Amino acid sequence: MALMCGVLFLSNERIRGSNVMQNLITRFIEDESGATAIEYGLIAALIAVGMIAGATSIGTKVNTKFNDIATTVSTGTASGTAG
């Protein structure tokens, strides 16, 4: 009799276990919080790419301006001006 109760107990646990597993899988599929984190990561990456592109462009222009200033200082005449 004790063995039979143990078998019934185990079979009931298996049924409850499969329901728990099914509930976990359902909640996992319906959960969208991970998607939100991925979206924020993509936004941050796009902002970083934009900042790098902007800094590169500004850096090139600043470098050109400093080269013009260095030429003006060494030759005594401004580049691009008539005279």
TrEMBL record:
<feature type="transmembrane region" description="Helical">
    <location>
        <begin position="41"/>
        <end position="59"/>
    </location>
</feature>
<dbReference type="Pfam" id="PF04964">
    <property type="entry name" value="Flp_Fap"/>
</dbReference>
<keyword id="KW-1133">Transmembrane helix</keyword>
<keyword id="KW-0812">Transmembrane</keyword>
<keyword id="KW-0472">Membrane</keyword>
<dbReference type="InterPro" id="IPR007047">
    <property type="entry name" value="Flp_Fap"/>
</dbReference>
<protein>
    <recommendedName>
        <fullName>Pilus assembly protein Flp/PilA</fullName>
    </recommendedName>
</protein>
